[in-house]
Amino acid sequence: MTNLKPIMDKTHAWATSYAKRRGYKLNSDDEMVQLVVEGLAKNKAELGRQYCPCRIVSGNVEQDRKIICPCVYHHDEIKENGSCHCSLFFRH
After folding, report:
1. CB count in 10 Å sphere of residue 91
2. Burial code of 3-42, b = ≥16 C-beta within 10 A, e = fewer?
3. What is the distance between the alpha carbons of residues 56 and 30, in angstroms, rounded to a whole number?
4. What are 81-92's pLDDT values in tens digits?
5. What is the distance between the alpha carbons of residues 56 and 40, in angstroms, rounded to a whole number?
6. Taking a C-beta distance cutoff of 8 angstroms, is the pair 69, 26 a contact?
7. What span, in angstroms and rounded, lies between the C-alpha atoms of 20 and 46?
8. Could you give phi then psi for residue 84, rounded to 5 degrees?
9. Which one, 18, 31, 65, 78, has least CB within 10 Å?
10. Burial of 70 (0-12, 13-18, 19+ CB in 10 A)
11. Cα–Cα distance for residue pair 80/38, rounded to 1 Å
12. How far is CA 81 from each of CA 2, 21, 75, 78, 85, rounded to the nearest angstrom?
């Protein structure tokens, strides 16, 4: 199995930077952040893309493009619910 640590480190750095640029914050629960980051890293290693771990990859390239993190739904989810579906990004 692929060593996920380097991918997870890169993914965590990306998520932190993305949240800051967009005016979001990462979940304050570090364990939850690690679970989501690990899922993103696994998807990157196994499927070649950073698919949201809380969504099902269908195999349809066009449909699955929508769930590459940050997915197309996250802005609306954060606006409506305070966080994205995966609970990675939160409203400040």
Report:
1. 14
2. ebeebbeebbeebeebbeeeebebbeeeeebebbbbbbbb
3. 24
4. 999 999 999 999
5. 12
6. no
7. 28
8. -75, 165
9. 31
10. buried
11. 26
12. 35, 20, 10, 5, 9
Whether 1 shows a pLDDT value over 60: the answer reads: no
pTM over 0.85: yes
Q: In the beta sheet, which residues pair with residue 51?
A: 68
Q: How many residues does the chain have?
A: 92
Task: Give the separation between CA 92 and CA 85, rounded to whole angstroms.
Answer: 16
Confidence of residue 2 (pLDDT cuts 50, 70, 90): low
Cross-strand pairs, 91: 24
